[in-house]
Amino acid sequence: MTQPAGLFITFEGIDGAGKSTQARALAAWLERQGREVVLTREPGGSAGAEEIRRLLVEGAPDRWSGETETLLFTAARRDHLERVIAPALATGKVVISDRFADSTRVYQGAARGELRAFVDALHGLAIRREPDLTLILDMDPEVALARGLARRSGEDRFEEEGLAFQLKLRAGFLALAGADPARCRVIDAGRPTEEITADVIAALREGLQ
Ligand SMILES: Nc1ncnc2c1ncn2[C@@H]1O[C@H](COP(=O)(O)OP(=O)(O)OP(=O)(O)O)[C@@H](O)[C@H]1O
Ligand SMILES: Cc1cn([C@H]2C[C@H](O)[C@@H](COP(=O)(O)O)O2)c(=O)[nH]c1=O
Fold first, then answer.
1. What is the Å distance from ligand 1's center to 27 Cα?
2. What was the ipTM of the complex prediction?
3. Which residue's C-alpha comes closest to atom 2 of ligand 1?
4. DSSP output for 110-171
5. What CATH number should be reported for the domain holding residue 178?
6. Structure pTM?
7. Structurally, how many domains does the chain consist of?
8. 122-163 pLDDT, tens per residue?
9. In the 8-state DSSP scheme, what is residue 8?
């Protein structure tokens, strides 16, 4: 049997938009279609990147400068790409990642300071890979924050930053989608889970045609 082509799909959006929920739902649907799926996340997704994740998400919001934070996210991504994403794609699997480089573009590049040129330069040196399809889950940050507050562990230094920060992030993700419409689809995430999943599957079908 011929091996299917690998497919790299990412979910992006503000904190609490439902990325993990939709990534799991899409993985289950793809498996029912007979595809082998690797469901992964950033920061993290490989053993080394999970170690770097702990450095990133724990501690005070000002623990790292924007530049250091960008270097750490990029180092984690390089390990994730080398050890998990690229090998899976090379063997015909579908890789679904809960966040990837767009999160760095938006969180470090726009919302935490004007570091976009630094972020892009590092991406060009160390990553040089874009997803085949990016699903941007878009919703009102107040609703997303309320979802997050209901389940928060208190360990995530990014979620400490409140509504104004989430509004900047939302605008950043929408701007990215506008700049790369061939890769990115914006999906209204302020609806029941099943409706969002139906749109995610439709976006994938449309993106593959
Ligand atoms: N469509 C939905 N309607 C209501 N609640 C939802 C919906 N989707 C997800 N949730 C709930 O909202 C919370 C956040 O969802 P989830 O973890 O999938 O979001 P996330 O975008 O991955 O979050 P984070 O960025 O913080 O990791 C969870 O408690 C989840 O059960
Ligand atoms: C990949 C990536 C992530 N972040 C931020 C976004 C989140 O607030 C935290 C942890 O991610 P999770 O979705 O809650 O698991 O990290 C970031 O600032 N830059 C990035 O590149």
1. 16
2. 0.98
3. 193
4. IITSS-HHHHHHHHHHHT----SEEEEEE--HHHHHHHHHHH--S--TTGGGHHHHHHHHHH
5. 3.40.50.300
6. 0.96
7. 1
8. 999 999 999 999 999 999 999 998 887 666 555 566 656 788
9. E
